[in-house]
Every structure is written in C-alpha cells, then in structure tokens.
Design goal:
alpha/beta, 8 helices, 5 strands, about 200 residues
C-alpha cells in the first residue's frame, strides 16, 4: 500500500468515527502566541507537549533550523499575518540541540542535486542569475546562533508592530527540556523604559 492510500484510508475512518472532535478549536490562537520551530520530526508531538500547548493554543510555523532566510519570505509574512490579523501577541523561536542546520553543507546538497538529476547547467544558470545557492543552503554555526538570527530578524523587522516580545529557546529533542536564550520581555522593558513589559 502506498503512503497516500494509507493516509486516505485512515482519514476516512478518522472522520467517520468523529475522532476530529478532540481537536476542534477556533482559528485564533488561545495563548496568543506564534511559535517558529524546526521541521525536525522529533519535535512534531514533543514540542507542543513540552510547551503545554494543545491544538488551537498557538500558530506553529516550521522551517529548517527555525532559521528565517529572508526578511520578506513566507515565514516572516506568516508571522506578521499572525500578529496583525490573527490576534497573536508574542513570538517564540524554538531551535533544538543536534540540529541538522548546524552541520549543513551546501556543496554536499548541490552534489546530491546533481546525483538526482538536476543538471549542472541549471545550477550555473541560477548562479549567473544572482541566486547564490551556496549561501542559500548555508547552515548555521550552532543552534544558538540560528535561534538568535531569527529572533533578531523578527524583532528588528521594519513591519513589526511595537511592543511585541520575541523570545528564543532551545529544546532538547530527547527530553523536551527548554532553555530560554532570549527573553523578549527584557528587550521590551528596555525599549519602553518603564521596567514593565508593554505586551
């Protein structure tokens, strides 16, 4: 049986048995939070449980390494939509230990592309058109750097609403232990000058 058939067979039973009722929620995040995290498979169920979040509590976005590669790409757009249109009031970037983005090798990926049928001509054309594939596929020095890169890109984005705390965390993909590495409330307090969070 192929994956799609298996998925559709399961889905039919899921709907017929009304298993979906346990997941019914509204479109606005109950905890008013946007979480940007990694696409690592170990975090699929572990991260929400470790953060005490159920279905409907947060807007959860995933990308490799929780790294935002473009200030005007789809990840940043989604964060801004959540903040302006979907009642989110905080952003939490969650990277994880043992992240593949910390050991990503652009040359290796491009070698894999060639092995799997992408022609050298296509790679050359992209490079000559200004697409720097080596930079685009570049990893991060370490997981903390990746989280801080995204925290800084979000918090310093010219379209961010004022007073939005942007936090950074690392999670252990085995135990779920969270480590706070950027406290967004502290930055808001300093910017506000009042000593109290504004959001």
């Amino acid at each position: 049986m192929n994956q799609i058939t298996e998925i559709l067979d399961h889905n039919k039973a899921f709907v017929e048995n009304k298993d979906y009722e346990a997941f019914i929620s509204g479109k606005f995040p109950e905890k008013k939070v946007v979480v940007l995290t990694c696409m690592d498979t170990r975090l699929t169920e572990l991260l929400p449980r470790a953060m005490n979040m159920r279905n409907g509590d947060a807007k959860i976005l995933k990308t490799a390494g929780a790294v935002i590669s473009s200030p005007f790409g789809s990840i940043m757009r989604s964060i801004l939509v959540a903040l302006y249109e979907l009642q989110a009031e905080e952003v939490i970037v969650v990277g994880h230990h043992e992240c593949g983005m910390a050991s990503l090798n652009a040359d290796h990926i491009m070698g894999q592309m060639l092995d799997r049928g992408v022609s050298q001509e296509v790679l050359d054309t992209l490079e000559h058109s200004g697409v720097q594939l080596g930079q685009w596929f570049k990893g991060v020095e370490n997981e903390t750097e990746g989280v801080m890169h995204s925290v800084n890109m979000i918090s310093n984005h010219p379209l961010m609403p004022a007073g939005i705390p942007v936090h950074g965390m690392l999670i252990d993909p085995k135990t779920g232990l969270l480590e706070l590495i950027a406290d967004g409330y502290e930055k808001i307090k300093k910017a506000d000058g009042s000593g109290q969070p504004t959001a």
